[in-house]
């Protein structure tokens, strides 16, 4: 019998048939979840990178030391709630004691053994609200710990987003510096050739080299700042970022545009909510300490059983009132300490509310001024591009010095740097304002959607890069691009020699009241000069 007959007639045929009838998502051991993962992998690189970065941010936020510390504090607060609840239960005490010794009777020198088991049940019926206040304080402490956890996540996310924006800031600043350095290097080489050929003084060449050095110093500063920003971001993320160009981050305008003048930060800030709960918790602790000054009243139930002899004492029920001078004095000191702590927490809440209101008003005003700065510097950057382009044309025509072109290039570079700084100051201000108004507090299960919304803005670097390209290689009429000065210097060129002598005077014209005019015959003799000799 052949191999086919064995498998078709045996159970293997059923397995083959089942595999053939499975949906396409199950082929080759692929589950629907795996199909969903492959569908995510088929997304565009930009969308996939944004989702990956958002997921990394969530993982970093949940595993941050400050967030884990807040979680531990929450577990401690929950234990305090259980402890306060257990204190209100009836208290059961079980005691076992035993002793052995010699009988004092001379006629009975045998050893005797005495053991005793006693059980008591105590229930406090009145303690002037001490137990109730402790339970209330513990519950408020747990709510405060929950808000502290939310606050720690929000503050970490704020630092993480600012660090992310700083990386993008110095990436763009480095591009500006590198672009300007390349342009200044061309002008410096051109000026060095002119000095070598005697067309310019040594001072001009030295000045060009000095300005190039200053430009390179800025580039090195931006590179160092970029490295520091990347290290800071990687430390917060907990992993190295291998992406060469991180996706842009921008807070949606709807998060910061609608901030009313009378906005109350107490209802939006997790910090203020937690501090308000702290005040209520300390007030409950003060009530508990005040109740501890007075004696508590408790009902007791006691039962004792003794061996040998199997003696069982009668069960006793009584009322217990404990009064101790040292306990009363200690309770009075605790009341004074709790009262001072309550006053401190109330003043701290007032200070935080004042700072929060001031911060929100300052943030709103700062964003308005930053918007004006961005528009002003954008216009100035456009004008500086036009100035560089005009001076480059004059320089190529021989009607402007290279140093004047250098001045225009350096000024344009400074304008672009200020423009980029204003753009990113605006982005950082948006993050801070969103945090102050409670927009960055991630709700349970909504952190991923909130973070992905931060990556849906427009590319605010595109206009900067476009103007940089226009400044470094400006188009001319008729299409195409102008050739750089160094490229012109490599081309074959011609010089015109002019010879003027007194013997070639053609005529002298004199008019009353005017200067004497002489007319000469000029001889023009072109001769070729090898390329690169300018």
From TrEMBL:
UniProt keyword annotation of Membrane present: yes
Primary location: membrane
UniProtKB keywords: Cell outer membrane, Membrane, Transmembrane, Transmembrane beta strand, Transport
GO cellular component: cell outer membrane; efflux pump complex
GO molecular function, one term: efflux transmembrane transporter activity
InterPro entries tied to this protein: OMP_efflux (IPR003423), TolC-like (IPR051906)
Places the protein is found: Cell outer membrane
PANTHER family recorded: OUTER MEMBRANE EFFLUX PROTEIN (PTHR30026:SF22), OUTER MEMBRANE PROTEIN TOLC (PTHR30026)
Family: Belongs to the outer membrane factor (OMF) (TC 1.B.17) family.
Annotated protein name in UniProt: Channel protein TolC
Species for this entry: Hydrogenophaga crassostreae
